[in-house]
Amino acid sequence: MHVGDILDVKMVKKVVIVGGGTAGWIAAAALSRQLGTLLDITLIESDDIGTVGVGEASIPTMRNFHSLAGIDEAEFMKASKATFKLGIKFENWGNLNESYIHSFGTIGKTTWMAGFHHFWLHAVAEGYGGSLGEYCLEHQAALAGKFSTSEKGHVNYAYHLDASLYAKYLRGLAAERSVRRVEGKVQQVKQNTTTGFIESVVLASGREIEGDLFIDCSGFQGLLIEKTLETGYEDWSHWLASDSAVAVQTKQVGSIPPYTRSIAHDAGWRWQIPLQTRVGNGLVYSSQYLSDDEAKRQLLENVGTDLVNEPRVIKFTTGKRKKSWNKNCVALGLSSGFLEPLESTSIHLIMIGVTRLMQIFPFDGVNDQLIDNFNAATDVELARIRDFIILHYKATNRDDSEFWRHCKSQSIPDSLRERLELFKSTGHINAVDGDIFRVDSWLQVMLGQGIKPQSYHHVAKMMQQGQLQNTLLQLKGSVEKAVGTMPTHQEFINSYCRGSSA
Description:
With about 500 residues, the chain is an alpha+beta fold. It has helices at about 5, 20-35, 60-70, 75-80, 115-125, 135-145, 165-175, 290-305, 345-360, 370-395, 400-410, 415-425, 440-450, 465-485, 490-495; strands at about 15-20, 40-45, 85, 85-90, 100-105, 160, 180-185, 185-190, 200-205, 210, 215, 235, 245-250, 260-265, 270-275, 280-285, 310-315, 320, 325, 330, 335-340. The chain folds into 3 domains: about 10-55 and about 160-235 and about 320-365, FAD/NAD(P)-binding domain (3-Layer(bba) Sandwich), CATH 3.50.50; about 100-155 and about 385-485, no CATH class; about 245-315, no CATH class. The chain has 15 helices and 21 strands. A 7-stranded mixed β-sheet has the order 5-4-14-15-16-13-17. Helix 2 links the parallel strand 1 (about 15-20) and strand 2 (about 40-45). The N and C termini lie far apart (about 60 Å).
């Protein structure tokens, strides 16, 4: 007997979100904005339970979500002390003392037959191509510390934000849209004895809250999806060895760069996320190669002494729940799994999860077809992000520590191996539908990590003598001109979204 056969007549009206933080309030804000008159939404959270809050950087898809959630950019940025992000600067990844930027921009101009990088590779072979980043506005603006945008602008960007303030801002929006917040800790979960569906949660106060659909935003513990429904977990630590992070905040000093920094160290990597009034710092590492105490010491040595809080250690197991949607429970955020924040995908995964839920919302009752559709799409996206993260570790020339020797020699998923082999031999990059990291992202990281293709599309050889060189000069010139007219990142923030206490 299938789930859908049992409860397809039970209409879904009452939605109960267990857990606040970024995940819970993103879900509440979006559902109430788009489906508010159709649903009765309750969010349960406890002020006594802290949040992990390491995901302070985002990717450009956040802007699309904000549009559908009715979020004003300048208002949200003031409230969360946010800054703009044009990409990520990776330092010491491919080789020690070398760096590259994974920018969010489009590189050059592509054609239907071959991407721009094939023309660039030919130019490099002929001795005049220069660096790939010279043909990307976002890349050059990041290096120059410049930023500007407008309704007519074409700059592709994301944000750095204070996750706690962001959740607080979303909470205010959700409250205006009739989302009920209930303070308390869940002490008991009641299930239907026949189907196993969750029927209600009982708080420590004794209050019982019934629901038709439950959204688990309880963090790593997975209170509903795992502790109650025993969904199971798919461990990916054999591909991604890091299992720990230590995080601390410091005061903002000096100019604010419009990019995240990711600095590789002997047993992992360290992040710097610049906000208006502080900097989010963290050190990700494998406990097999670095102790917690040594990790704290290394982090504090590199961030200075102007600490805003005390460093805290976070333990995790990279991977995902075997089902993100099980019975009448949908897991979002850390309760659904964990991928280290190397490419700032944690907030995106929350947003795409609730967006996908809204698109196939089970108004007429939860059934297997909806569950399978949701889980299949989620699994594909997670696997593609996983591969992109593994790429940074696998494609390296570093062999100066046991950790990097392990990463360099480890096995990788077949899906990633096939992408790498195709690029190495031909210069081609598969453009996969639904992949949030498109061709230009894969290109920048593969080249930045030291992968050099053995060949490329020869269409560039069809161009007349000097034609390609002149075209490249014009492209570079237009980028230089655009960057030259931009204000500094700090100047733009001051005029557009400076927080009241910044």
